[in-house]
Design goal:
mainly alpha; MetI-like fold; about 75% helix
Length: about 260
């Protein structure tokens, strides 16, 4: 009974800020106050019409799309190599690929900033894309690696014994069997990239900034509930995507080793 109360209290503590943000987003007055004095959608309209958010949304889509397109094949090949390849220092390679999970965002952002300044790429999205690839790669490797570990090699050997070429076996047998892990990797790569803030803050400017950075800039200059409305859209979209993925892809099975 005590354990259930503790868990319930923790869940309430975690979800309460989200509820407050969503409630504030409907406040008709230009003040971030709770509880709201009424209901209004004016701040959601402001989100959709504010030029800085429109530009940042395009940047977010470009950066996330490019980062995922690069990280997914690289992470898949890396997971296959870690599980099946004859690599020397396999553990060292695994630690290197997963290290962005433990490197502080400030340290990573500063490193990318110095690199971008040295290469003269501070006004380009290329450094942002490279940073996002590094940040989402561990999630791709982890998701696909577990799927590779759970894959039955007898199915691939059966296809090879029937005369299928290695490339044909990979396309028609291995990749379809890895589909749950690939979809999970895609999902978490998109979510992590779209919500990445700390590193992006160091290496973006007003032209290349993505939505989380634009939200921070807005908060610095304004105190109306527009930021609460945009945050609510982020929260709802992320929840719906993860819920659908968990319902149809069984994410627990993907991320837990057998």
């Amino acid at each position: 009974m005590i354990l259930r109360l503790v868990v319930a209290a923790l869940l309430l503590f975690i979800t309460l800020p989200t509820v407050v943000v969503i409630a504030v987003s409907f406040n008709p007055t230009a003040i971030l106050s709770f509880p709201p004095s009424g209901l209004s959608l004016r701040w959601y309209e402001n989100v959709l019409t504010y030029p800085q958010f429109q530009r940042a949304a395009v940047n977010s889509l470009v950066v996330t799309g490019a980062a995922v397109a690069l990280a997914l094949p690289v992470g898949t090949l890396a997971a296959l190599a870690l599980e099946r390849g004859r690599l020397r220092g396999r553990n060292a390679w695994a630690v290197l690929l997963l290290s962005p999970l433990v490197v502080p965002g400030v340290a990573a952002g500063l490193g990318f900033l110095i690199l971008a300044a040295a290469l003269g790429l501070l006004r380009s999205r290329s450094v942002l894309i490279a940073a996002h690839v590094a940040l989402v790669l561990p999630f791709v490797v982890r998701a696909v690696w577990v799927s590779v570990r759970n894959l039955d090699p007898a199915l691939e050997r059966a296809a090879a014994s029937l005369g299928a070429a290695p490339s044909h076996v990979f396309r028609r047998v291995t990749l379809p069997l890895l589909k749950p892990g690939l979809f999970a990797a895609l999902l978490f790569a998109v979510v992590v990239s779209l919500n990445e803030f700390v590193v992006s803050l160091f290496i973006s400017n007003r032209v290349t900034e993505i939505l989380p950075v634009a939200m921070f800039t807005y908060v610095v200059n304004y105190t109306d509930p527009t930021i609460a409305a945009l945050s609510s859209l982020f929260i709802v979209a992320t929840f719906v995507v993860v819920w659908l993925a968990d319902r149809y892809l069984d994410l627990a099975r993907v991320f837990l080793q057998h």
